[in-house]
Write a structure and sequence with these properties.
There is one protein chain. The chain is of the alpha+beta class. Helix content is about 35%, strand content about 25%. Strands 1, 2, 3, 4, 5, 6, 7, 8, 9, 10, 11, 12 and 13 form a 13-stranded mixed beta sheet that branches.
């Protein structure tokens, strides 16, 4: 007997989080998230996205046992900016039973339809960040990089059988740091001389100034036509920066500046903490912190999760320079490779720069849409 129920109690929220441990217990590539982080994601006190419109999380129970989950909601701020009535789905998980998936999709789309949505997109980030954005549809041969999606290979079949269609893909690139192309090094040197821009590490001693620089770059470099993103507010930038400071390596965060000092590019690279998180099994206490401190120094790959260039400096070597400086810094710090996830497939400038910088597309994440 299958039933779909909204998440309404602390016990429901724990069941929502715990399901993943049962579904992926035999999958060696799965990286358990921190339970506290996922619980906070379900709480509007800790997740600003849930304060931007109606939302609901659902559990699927079969014979009394939790066998699936889904979240859905409406981002009124995004809809206002795009002039649309979109809803989103997120954090979908299910046993290998289409009946369960179909019932969850019915619950989510029904909720969104009742709240005025005309189109559903997803899977989207549950926190309006870069986590869990897109369904993995290609590249199941290894563990995910930090913040990247991971799911069984039958999930795309569930989505498509229900009627979801591809909206667009986001691509993950792999960089081997032993093979920084000589062509890239020479090209960046020429570009910097010709267009007179510089690249430098972030200065945490002048944090507020750096936050304003990042805000300037994000405002100018986020295209209005992108369907799923708008430029963050100053408060959102400030909050995200302060959240990243404890885990960031300042030598891997770079700003590009024009000759007159205008900020024109940003690249943020982090150690791939998934190598540590995988060993913590979702818990910080009592032994999680010890494992974190012990294995942190053993991380050997990085994850580039943000690279932006203002339009006036497209095709002038700025993104290539950010790749070059970041790769050289990571190699000097002892890392052997890195993931850049994820690049919109229609963002051809950054896509081509990733390839030109030695990147190899090795993972594909799909955003689906469904007309209500």
């Amino acid at each position: 007997m299958l039933e779909i129920v909204p998440v309404s109690t602390a016990r429901d929220r724990r069941a929502f989080v715990d399901l993943a441990w049962r579904l992926y217990k035999d999958d060696p590539n799965w990286v358990p998230p921190l339970r506290t982080d996922i619980l906070n994601t379900l709480n509007p006190k800790h997740n600003a996205l849930l304060r931007l419109g109606p939302y609901c999380y659902f559990l699927a129970r079969k014979d009394g046992k939790v066998v699936g989950r889904i979240g859905c909601g409406i981002d009124n701020l995004l809809n206002k900016a795009k002039g649309k009535n979109l809803g989103y789905i997120t954090l979908f998980e299910s046993i290998q039973d289409y009946e369960v998936a179909e019932a969850l999709f019915d619950a989510a789309t029904g909720f969104l339809r009742r709240h005025g949505a005309e189109m559903v997109t997803g899977p989207q980030s549950p926190s309006n960040g870069d986590d869990y954005r897109g369904l993995l549809v290609d590249g199941f041969d290894g563990p995910p990089a930090l913040l990247a999606s991971y799911n069984p290979d039958w999930y795309p079949d569930f989505f498509e059988k229900y009627g979801f269609e591809k909206q667009f893909d986001r691509l993950g690139f792999w960089f081997d740091l032993d093979e920084i192309p000589e062509k890239l090094i020479r090209g960046v040197e020429i570009a910097q001389k010709r267009y007179k821009f510089t690249v430098r590490p972030v200065d945490l001693n002048n944090l507020e100034s750096e936050i304003l620089a990042i805000k300037h770059i994000t405002d100018k470099s986020t295209p209005e036509e992108w369907p799923d993103m708008i430029s963050p507010s100053l408060e959102e930038v400030r909050a995200e920066v302060k959240k990243l400071i404890p885990i960031a390596e300042p030598k891997l965060v770079y700003l590009a500046e024009a000759e007159d000092g205008e900020p024109i590019g940003l690249a943020v690279t982090l150690p791939d903490y998934n190598q540590v998180i995988k060993r913590m099994n979702g818990k910080l206490f009592p032994f999680g912190w010890c494992k974190y401190l012990y294995y942190k120094s053993k991380i050997n790959t990085v994850r580039l999760f943000a690279l932006m260039v203002v339009p006036e400096y497209h095709r002038k070597g700025v993104s290539a320079a950010l790749y070059k400086y970041g790769m050289e810094a990571a190699k000097k710090l002892g890392y052997i490779g890195g993931d850049a996830s994820s690049i919109h497939e229609f963002n051809l400038k950054i896509y081509n720069d990733a390839i030109g910088s030695g990147g190899r597309a090795y993972r594909r994440f799909r955003i689906y849409q469904y007309k209500l």
